[in-house]
Amino acid sequence: PDYGKAESKLLTERASDPLKDVNARDALADCRHYYEENDPNKAIEACNVTLGLMGNHPDPDAYHYRCLSNYALKRYLTALDDCQELTRLQPTRDVARSNTGLILQALGRNSEAITEFSEALRLNSNSLEALHYRAISFERLSRFQEGLTDCDTALKLAPGNAQILELRKRLSDHMQQPR
User: Fold this and answer.
1) Where residue 98 falls among pLDDT bands split at 50, 70, 90?
2) Cα angle 24-46-52, degrees, rounded to a multiple of 5
3) Which of these, 162, 121, 84, 76, lies nearest to 146 by C-alpha position?
């Protein structure tokens, strides 16, 4: 990525407000803001600025928001790189593992996704997202019983969750079909 170009653009946008000094903290706040406002392109630019300004000491959140923004744009391989870098920087961050699993799932790499979701669950056994998406990967690999088990565990955490109930029904229906 061209950090200089992104930084220059951000500096130009902020030139109208001389009291706002562009530094890594401001750029990271912009990265998060643009992601939350569903503007992934601007979020990526701000994350690039953040990473460029931080040099050898990057803030993991810049990788987190850039990963999610690239995922939103369906740039799965780039998102995967960012999530893997986030995991390298913060190996005990369960959301990094869940996001990596989600990207691998989008790439059709469900066995690898299950590994990532399982690691997220090892780090945080109450991760509803990891249970939900691991169950989806199990379904895609025709491992219906394992998916049902994840759904049942997820429903203990979030009783009545419509998405998980729907997935559980689908998995149960698969189990009823003759093989």
Assistant:
1) very high
2) 50
3) 121
Q: CA-CA distances (angstroms) from residue 7 to 24, 111, 136?
A: 10, 39, 40
Q: Residue 88 is which amino acid?
A: R
Alpha-carbon distance values, 6 to 41, 82, 104 (Å): 11, 17, 28
CB 85 within 8 A of CB 37: no
Q: Which two tokens stand for residue 134?
A: 């691991």
Q: Which residue has the tokens 């562009």?
A: 22
Q: Is the pTM here over 0.90, yes or no?
A: no
Q: Decide: 154 and 132 in contact? Cβ < 8 Å.
A: yes
- pLDDT, tens digit, for every residue of 21-42? 458 888 899 999 999 999 999 9
Measure the CA–CA gap between 52 and 149, rounded to whole angstroms.
44
What angle (nearest 5°) sits at the alpha carbon of residue 54, between those of residues 83 and 14? Answer: 105
